[in-house]
Design goal:
By secondary structure, the protein is an alpha+beta fold. Helix content is 46%, strand content 13%.
């Protein structure tokens, strides 16, 4: 059985992968435009693992760059046009920017197709946002920054790999009854994991305060009651409804004197490997949207654009993740 979990591949031109399926991703050129950038993508394999790939030309077009640009920073693709931008990409992220060579017909001669791990999109988007926050971007990089933000709104509701799966038809729809039963098994713990590390960081709360014009004190751990409402609306609302219903039944309020409180955090009922990691990604993407928003109204508008499809399809997307996690577990056990 092939491993469909995301794997970082250290590839070279002498190790060609086999293409399985082709597709095309579509990203708006700007939020209000009806024009789209077409980004070729593919599912490829080395015979054991599955990789989601976007083509070299597609990666360059995504950031409004010519596909045949010279490599200006050693060790990075030409789309990374400056050492300053490269400095915002860490060692692990850089592995996702290594070229992947593949062909759909092994009997066909000529040069193989070249692409990059689909997650390279997120790596580059983050680099541009970090560079903007440090005010180090040059004038000729502002178009790429604008396009990065536009793609972020199109991506944030889903993982890039899920978009590639849809574009290529790699994973089809599943029956909802099977979805619910299986997702619960992979996402939920029988009891709260009280030793689980906190999911919501100071940055998350700091951005909430900034959007609402509140003064933030990192030493003060008390939060306005509205923060809980905000978290439910913009974070937990992206978790399948049947998962949250189950969690709320388990995490009931207890009474102590004249007030009610919860003994546990909602996320402590999620499994660390599947449910917890899914929540981490949601928090990360929502935080990124907050970071590029001016105020709470701007954030709400961007959020609804970015997560529109995920809100409509959150159950099937959770099923895909649960299925991939199970395949990974089975594969890892078979290696022991």
């Amino acid at each position: 059985m092939m491993n469909t979990s995301e794997v970082i591949i250290e590839n070279n031109k002498n190790k060609e992968l086999l293409g399985l399926k082709k597709g095309t991703l579509f990203f708006k050129r700007n939020v209000d435009s009806e024009l789209y950038i077409e980004v070729p993508c593919a599912i490829v394999t080395d015979g054991q693992d599955i990789f989601r790939v976007i083509s070299k030309s597609g990666l360059f077009k995504s950031f409004d760059r010519g596909a045949h640009g010279a490599i200006r920073v050693p060790g990075f693709p030409g789309v990374i046009g400056s050492k300053t931008l490269a400095s915002f990409i860490d060692k692990e992220e850089k592995k996702l920017l290594e070229p992947i060579y593949y062909r759909f017909d092994r009997n066909r001669s000529g040069e193989p197709e070249v692409g990059y791990n689909a997650e390279a999109l997120i790596v580059i988007i983050k680099a541009y946002i970090r560079a903007e926050e440090e005010n180090v971007l040059k004038a000729n990089q502002l178009n790429a920054l604008k396009q990065a933000k536009c793609i972020l709104l199109g991506l944030a509701g889903e993982r890039v790999r899920d978009l590639v799966d849809k574009a290529t038809g790699f994973i089809g729809d599943e029956e909802s009854g099977i979805v619910e039963k299986f997702v619960k098994k992979m996402y939920l713990n029988d009891k709260a994991l009280t030793t689980m590390n906190p999911k919501f960081t100071g940055e998350f709360y700091q951005e909430i305060f900034r959007l609402h014009g509140w003064k933030f004190d990192k030493e003060d751990v008390s939060r306005p009651g509205y923060v809980g409402i905000f978290t439910n609306k913009y974070i937990y609302n992206l978790v399948p409804d049947f998962i949250m219903e189950d969690i709320r039944k388990r995490n009931k309020r207890d009474r102590e004197k004249d007030y009610y409180y919860k003994k546990n955090k909602n996320y402590q009922f999620l499994t660390e490997n599947t449910g917890g990691k899914a929540l981490d990604e949601i928090i990360d993407r929502v935080t990124m949207i907050m970071r590029i928003s001016k105020d709470r109204y701007d954030f709400d508008e961007k959020y609804n654009i970015a997560f529109k499809e995920k809100l409509e399809n959150k159950s099937i997307l959770a099923y895909q993740r649960a299925k991939e996690s199970l395949v990974k577990e089975i594969t890892e056990k078979s290696k022991i």
